[in-house]
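tool_call predict_complex ligand=adenosine-5'-triphosphate
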Amino acid sequence: MEEIPVKVAVRIRPLLSKEVLHNHQVCVRSVPNTQQIIIGKDRAFTFDYVFGKNSTQGEVYTVCIKPLLLSLTEGYNATVFAYGQTGSGKTYTIGGGHIASIAEDEKGIIPRAIQELFQHISENHNIDFCVKVSYIEVYKEELRDLLELETSVKDLHIREDEKGNTGRILDLKFDTYGFSCVPKLFFLS
Ligand SMILES: Nc1ncnc2c1ncn2[C@@H]1O[C@H](COP(=O)(O)OP(=O)(O)OP(=O)(O)O)[C@@H](O)[C@H]1O
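tool_result ok
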């Protein structure tokens, strides 16, 4: 059977203060020492990784992203995207918020990966690296280049190669952060 190299991690976020204030209840919990979560009373689901409500940004990075970053520097491609309903913690986890103003341990995936990548580059003088960054919003089938806002939406397209691969970005309807080295590592949120 062909290997499908996709791993899925689920992260449970803690209740926000306003949710506690409104007496909202937690409806999902992780099962200790397993990769399972239980929704409601008894509906169990298994994932490749489970991060409970007390998980840290550092843990998520170390377990899920660091191995990809290491592979990236060895020439493999990697894509990371956060998927979930509004308010579930995608931006928080991917770390695309106000990066400059957040505390070190609150930093999400993007700043940690960039830091580690450039650290790697600075330690490997004998290899030439080319790093490219793109930041694209995909919303209702329309693409917007957030680094070149004057570019017309109509000028941006998702293209396929002859094998039907969408290559640069996937056809996802979320805000999209692309960050590529050679080869490429993408973050989609
Ligand atoms: N693991 C976490 N620990 C603490 N706070 C969190 C965590 N995850 C998310 N939050 C907080 O929950 C709120 C919603 O998170 P966030 O904005 O990341 O959601 P989102 O999925 O990106 O939402 P949207 O789709 O609406 O953009 C934010 O105030 C964020 O700081």
